[in-house]
Amino acid sequence: xxxxxxxxxxxxxSCKSICPSHAITGEKKELHKINGEICIxxxxxxxxxxxxAVEDNFGLILQRTRKKDWEKPLFNLxxxxxxxxxxxxxxxxxxxxxxxxxxxSHTFPWLPDESVCMGCGFCAADCPVDAIAMGPRVLLATAAxxxx
Length: 148
Known about the structure:
Blueprint: E1 4-5, H1 14-18, E2 24-25, E3 33-34, H2 44-48, E4 54-55, E5 72-75, H3 85-89, E6 96-100, E7 107-110, H4 122-126, E8 132-135, H5 137-147
Antiparallel strand pairs: 1-4, 2-3, 5-8, 6-7
């Protein structure tokens, strides 16, 4: 079941421009529509909608969230088995797997450019060993500082 754009849509096109599956159509200043056959239910459309005009498949209206507050994947490399499922699952291709852990010949996933990540959480949901959790950017910055 796909997301739905309500009549309160102002036609700003924010949702259309961020949709990774190009499921949203509509002209500027007109009601937009989501094609349920290609919508991947990532929620990015609702997080950018200034009119709070996007409803999820449970009937809840998605809240606009500043992009800097979107959750990002946090990787537990001690648990990760380098299977690559997260890379295949990511709808924006935000993840890369060329990071190596000291003492390992495997490459591990990482997020080289946070601005490409939509915070959909598909990578965490599909990880077979629960090596990925979604968390705030502040936590990512803190983790990076602790490693330095």
